[in-house]
Specification:
Layout (H helix, E strand, L loop, with lengths): L1 H69 L2 H20 L2 H20 L2 E4 L11 E8 L5 E6 L1 E4 L2 E4 L1 E7 L1
Parallel strand pairs: 2-6
Antiparallel strand pairs: 1-4, 3-6, 4-5
Amino acid sequence: MHGDSVASTSEKQSKKRKSKKDIEIENLKKELEAVKTESMELKELAQRIQADFDNYRKRIQRENEVREKYGCEKIIVRMLDVLDTLERAIAHEKGDFRTGLEMIKAQIESILSEFGVEAFDSVGKHFDPNLHEAVAAGEGEESIVIEEYQKGYRLYDKVIRHAKVKVGRR
């Protein structure tokens, strides 16, 4: 009988060890699941951060392109005033001096063109408040520009100076 009790004790200890092992295995499985979950969360976080960074990089690139494209707008607008003065001088001059002024004007227009500046025609066109500033009205076809007092200019696709015009009315 004594042997039975030793065997029984040994079995109990073995079961106890097994249950301790089972508990340890269960704990390790739970720990593994927690690590897997954390790993997935970190992976998703890294993907979001990467996407945010890509969006940031693209936004900065677009902003730099806009800055490069339109960064000289203020000086160009000021140069347009100089060009207007030069055109008035040409209108009042004759001979060689006029020829020299026309050459300077052509050079300025060429430089402005290289920077994406272009004048737009207004006379005979339908009045467009996005392009024109009506400073007078006169006899003529309704809403048609009949006279241009000051040229309008675009910098690429942006109007940087509205044309000052006289608009027809009946």
